[in-house]
Design a protein that fits this description.
- With 141 residues, the protein is mostly helical.
- It has one domain: Large-conductance mechanosensitive channel, MscL, domain 1 (Non-ribosomal Peptide Synthetase Peptidyl Carrier Protein, Chain A, Orthogonal Bundle).
- Helix content is 67%, strand content 5%.
- Strands 1-2 form a two-stranded antiparallel sheet.
- Helix 2 crosses helix 3.
- It is elongated, with a radius of gyration of 33 Å.
Length: 141
């Protein structure tokens, strides 16, 4: 139990959990962007098509014979429009992540260049130099 407490209290685990939560909601935002902002104009450009409704019907739905609907059959279809939306969502997410990583790398490179350009502190004098300096000071007296 003690080992588990040490593991769970490490900063890396907390950072990873925060990253996972942020990624989940980032994905939801991108999905909403694709489904409600990007896809409608694309559908309009290709003739008013709503990609989410594109499908190949393999079996039509059959009406229920009882009021409860126990004997009815649901429609069987291949919803390839939803698959198209998923592909576009993936491409948008990949592009957004690429841009974030590119900005991070650029910022990191700038910081490394600043550190390299900063003058290095002069090295501390060696023991021999310190002793020679003390001898010089004693001889001056």
């Amino acid at each position: 139990m003690e080992e588990f407490k040490k593991f769970i209290s490490k900063g890396n685990v907390v950072d990873m959990a925060v990253g996972l939560i942020m990624a989940t909601y980032f994905g939801a935002i991108i999905k909403a962007l694709v489904d409600h902002v990007i896809m409608p104009p694309i559908g309009l450009l290709v003739g008013g098509v709503d990609f989410a409704k594109l499908k190949i019907i393999l079996q039509e739905a059959k009406a229920p014979s009882t009021p409860e609907g126990a004997d009815g059959l649901a429609e069987v279809a291949i919803n390839y429009g939803i698959f198209i939306n998923a592909i576009i969502t993936f491409v948008v997410v990949a592009w957004a992540i690429f841009m974030v990583v590119k900005a991070y790398n650029r910022m990191k490179d700038r910081m490394e260049k600043k550190e390299a350009a900063a003058p290095a502190a002069p090295p501390a004098p060696s023991k021999e130099e310190v002793l020679l300096g003390e001898i010089r000071d004693l001889l001056k007296k």
